[in-house]
């Protein structure tokens, strides 16, 4: 898997202890999906190895339009772009001048992108478990039903007002990623051009 693919599929993670169980986080997730057709937010991302040692820190801007269109722009430490147009997903590494193309189903199947930009049928791809309240956030864990998924679980933290603040993920290699959102804007007007990508001239294009 190339560096950009790793960034995309290793979005999110933190270690959490279950506490009181109730339906607040599940309700927040369903409300978020039902009421949020488009979204824009800045994010910071930390990737940890199996020993909780920081491998990489990055940041950028996340935008999506339901269903299945999204744009993740990594601005630091190096410029990368992930664009989902509803049919394909384009991974662009500016430093390497390399583009990797995957079909939507192959690229995001049971992934964080499926939760954020997918349709409302979450239970079809994920088993959802309430984790209770911690650090003034309501937590929910989503376990992919597809046994071939590259993720063990995804965890989502919502504020008491139902705003998505944190996503967390552990992958099948024991690496964990923490993604923190800020300045989340619900239902902004997003131009259609955001979700289209044309490989730059001279770039190395790879189709999986």
Automatic annotation (TrEMBL):
Coiled-coil annotated residue ranges, if any: none
A single GO BP: lipoprotein transport
Keywords assigned: Chaperone, Lipoprotein, Periplasm, Protein transport, Signal, Transport
Pfam families for the chain: LolA
GO CC terms: periplasmic space
Transmembrane segments: none
Compartmental location: Periplasm
HAMAP family: LolA
Sequence similarity: Belongs to the LolA family.
Assembly and oligomerization: Monomer.
Protein name, entry field: Outer-membrane lipoprotein carrier protein
Upper lineage: Bacteria, Pseudomonadati, Pseudomonadota, Betaproteobacteria, Nitrosomonadales
């Amino acid at each position: 898997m190339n560096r950009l693919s790793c960034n995309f599929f290793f979005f999110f993670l933190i270690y959490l202890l279950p506490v009181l169980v109730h339906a607040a986080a599940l309700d927040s997730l369903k409300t978020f999906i039902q009421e949020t057709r488009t979204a824009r937010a800045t994010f910071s991302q930390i990737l940890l190895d199996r020993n909780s040692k920081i491998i990489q820190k990055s940041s950028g801007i996340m935008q999506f339009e339901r269903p299945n269109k999204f744009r993740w722009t990594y601005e630091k430490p190096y410029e990368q772009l992930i664009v989902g147009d509803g049919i394909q997903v384009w991974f662009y590494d500016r430093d390497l001048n390399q583009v990797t193309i995957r079909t939507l189903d192959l690229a995001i199947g049971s992934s964080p992108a499926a939760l954020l930009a997918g349709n409302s049928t979450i239970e079809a791809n994920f088993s959802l478990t309430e984790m209770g309240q911690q650090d003034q956030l309501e937590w929910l864990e989503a376990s992919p039903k597809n046994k071939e998924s590259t993720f063990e679980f995804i965890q989502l933290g919502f504020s008491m007002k139902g705003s998505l603040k944190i996503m967390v993920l552990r992958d099948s290699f024991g690496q964990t990623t923490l993604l923190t959102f800020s300045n989340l804007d619900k239902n902004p007007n997003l131009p259609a051009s955001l979700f289209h990508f044309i490989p730059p001239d001279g770039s190395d294009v790879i189709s999986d």
